[in-house]
Design a protein that fits this description.
This protein is α/β, with parallel strands linked by helices and 135 residues long. The protein folds into two domains: 32 residues; 85 residues, Periplasmic binding protein-like II (D-Maltodextrin-Binding Protein, domain 2). Helices cover 47% and strands 20% of the residues. The protein contains four helices and four strands. A four-stranded mixed beta sheet has the order 2-1-3-4. The longest helix is centred in the N-terminal third of the chain and has 28 residues. The protein is rod-shaped, with a radius of gyration of 27 Å. 19% of the residues are buried.
Length: 135
């Protein structure tokens, strides 16, 4: 004689469903919370001569929105003082100044983050809303 199939109590089904949901959520939480915070940030040292400080800040903010793994150490000052620091070997990744009446963004020899500096300069030159280029 065959016995009737055993029914699983509703309470056990709810517990089993909850356990399954928790097990599914663990990898999602790890992916959303833990993994992004473990991505190393790259800090670019940017020197901007007056009067380009505010435009550099605005352009950096737009760049950072598209490139969240970058941070900026932005220093604004008189062009001669900034150039002297660079000549003395202070590591600077991007130098923003006017040269012969023309705005220039350069990567000094002391740069540590060449790829990031090049990415920022390319962004500043190609972004249709670049504050640095008066757009």
């Amino acid at each position: 004689m065959q016995s009737a199939p055993r029914r699983i109590p509703k309470r056990d089904l709810v517990l089993l469903g909850g356990l399954f949901a928790v097990l599914l959520l663990i990898p999602i939480v790890l992916f959303v919370v833990v993994i992004p915070s473990s991505v190393p940030l790259t800090t670019l040292s940017i020197y901007a001569a007056e009067p380009y400080g505010e435009a550099a800040r605005q352009t950096w903010a737009a760049f950072e929105r598209q490139n969240p793994t970058y941070r900026a150490d932005l220093r604004v000052g008189e062009v001669g003082a900034l150039a002297t620091q660079i000549e003395r070997g202070v590591p600077v990744d991007v130098f923003i100044r006017a040269e012969n009446g023309q705005l220039t963004l350069t990567i000094p020899a002391s740069a540590r983050q060449w790829a990031g500096a090049a990415a920022f300069i390319a962004f500043a030159q190609s972004d249709p809303k670049s504050a640095l280029l008066g757009r």
